[in-house]
UniProtKB/TrEMBL annotation:
Gene3D superfamilies: 1.20.1280.50
Domain F-box: 28-75
Name by which UniProt lists this protein: F-box only protein 48
Gene: LOC117551956
Highest taxon of the lineage: Eukaryota
Listed InterPro entries: F-box-like_dom_sf, F-box_dom
Pfam families assigned to the protein according to its UniProt record, in alphabetical order: F-box-like (PF12937)
Length: 151
């Protein structure tokens, strides 16, 4: 099996010792040379989908992303813009930022779509077939109803 020597997966799988053995060769994986805090800041700039893809790139990236509360807190702040009540409740219950994000991500996307009127003209459940749905609480349905009335 031939590996592309420029692919992130290949670069990330090289051992640190081999990089250090040739001083004139620039480092190929930023996460191997930067302090973890700097790598977390870089990963914190990614959107949720890109962050999940980066976590699949190599073990080092996965470990940094998986263990960083900072990265997950940043992602969760985007979700809390739509689901503040739910995020606050989960955090009060002691859930980590990552678990809070995972628990509320689909809900926030669905709620945002409802509030923007994406489903304003749906006439039957059949029109929602294939759309991922998740339970919403009574307060959320009240917000959605008010948004519909305001349109």
């Amino acid at each position: 099996m031939h590996h592309d020597p420029t692919s992130p997966v290949f670069l990330c799988s090289k051992r640190r010792a081999s990089l250090m053995s040739t001083c004139d060769v620039p480092p190929e994986n930023f996460a191997e040379t930067l302090p973890t805090e700097m790598s977390e800041r870089i990963f914190g700039e990614l959107d949720t989908e890109s962050l999940c893809s980066a976590a699949l790139t190599c073990r080092l990236w996965h470990d940094i992303i998986e263990e960083s509360e900072q990265v997950w807190r940043i992602q969760c702040s985007l979700v809390s813009a739509v689901c503040q009540r739910e995020v606050d409740s989960d955090r009060r219950d002691g859930l980590s930022w990552k678990v809070t994000l995972v628990k509320n991500y689909t809900r926030s996307c669905l709620k945002r779509d409802w509030l923007r009127g994406r489903f304003s003209h749906v006439r039957s459940a059949e029109e929602l077939r294939g759309r991922k749905m998740t339970p919403l609480d009574a307060e959320t349905w009240g917000e959605i109803l008010q948004a519909e009335l305001d349109r």
